[in-house]
Specification:
It contains 7 helices and 11 strands. By secondary structure, the protein is an alpha+beta fold. Bound molecules: zinc ion (2 copies). One zinc ion binds next to loops.
């Protein structure tokens, strides 16, 4: 290695890091000092490089190195968290553990919150919902179901699962949006690179808007997009 360094026209120097410090850490119950870095939060990092035209004796592409310090890949600030359920260390990029117990706990909490939300909102009858909304959103299945096919959908689920009970479902109304084009925005975009005082009259803008509205109306069916409206629930009844 030394040979290669010299042959590449480089010189090798060693920097001694003489660094003494006491780091104070305030840890919570499930936190501990990182084993990888000993709590420093940093580690020696390799910054390898090669030299164009220089062929290393063992064919290594980036044989040279300017080592420095960088953040420890295992922890933040020298601290690791241990999962209270599986007792394993939690990976650096995760805020909570990915084990089954933790996942189940999270799912249970979300379910409880969803139930609470559901209990609070006003509700309309299924009949009313089917008559007034093109689609309904079934939260339990994360599925949008067309109102005119809703009964078929329920039948299908009944066939699939003998325990399926539509009365347990959290069903929401939806709102529908379709394509909209703003004449003012289009004119503003188109005028961006024109001279400073370039202007289109209000009347002409309105004319264009009327045309766009008509065009959007004619093309609405292909662009209709439904969003779950979780402000109103639907009570299932046979
Ligand atoms: Zn560390
Ligand atoms: Zn865990």
């Amino acid at each position: 290695m030394v040979n290669d360094v010299l042959q590449a026209g480089l010189r090798s120097e060693v920097v001694e890091v003489d660094f003494k410090a006491k780091l104070e850490k305030h840890l919570s119950k499930n936190e501990e000092i990182c084993e990888n870095c000993g709590g420093l939060g940093m580690k020696v990092d390799n910054n390898v490089f090669g030299i164009k035209g220089y062929k290393h004796s063992k064919g290594i592409t980036f044989p040279f190195n300017n080592q420095s310090l960088s953040f420890c890949p295992s922890c933040y600030n020298g601290i690791r968290k241990r999962c209270e359920h599986c007792n394993k260390l939690i990976a650096k990029s995760w805020t909570v553990c990915n084990c089954e117990t933790t996942r189940k706990q999270k799912a249970d909490k979300e379910e409880l919150e969803a139930k609470k939300r559901w209990n609070k909102i006003p509700k309309i009858s299924l009949e009313n919902a089917l008559a007034n909304y093109g689609m309904l959103y079934v939260e339990d299945f994360d599925e949008y179901v067309a109102s005119n096919a809703f009964e078929d959908w329920v039948e299908y689920q009944r066939d699939e699962d003998e325990f399926f009970d539509p009365k347990d479902l959290r069903i929401y109304i939806t709102r529908c949006e379709s394509i909209y084009l703003s004449a003012a925005d289009i004119i503003e975009n188109a005028s961006e690179d024109l001279h400073e005082d370039a202007e289109v009259s209000n009347e002409a803008t309105e004319q264009l808007q009327n045309f766009l509205d008509q065009w959007c109306k004619e093309n609405s069916s292909e662009t209709q997009t439904y969003y779950a409206d979780e402000s109103t629930g639907v009570i299932y009844s046979d």
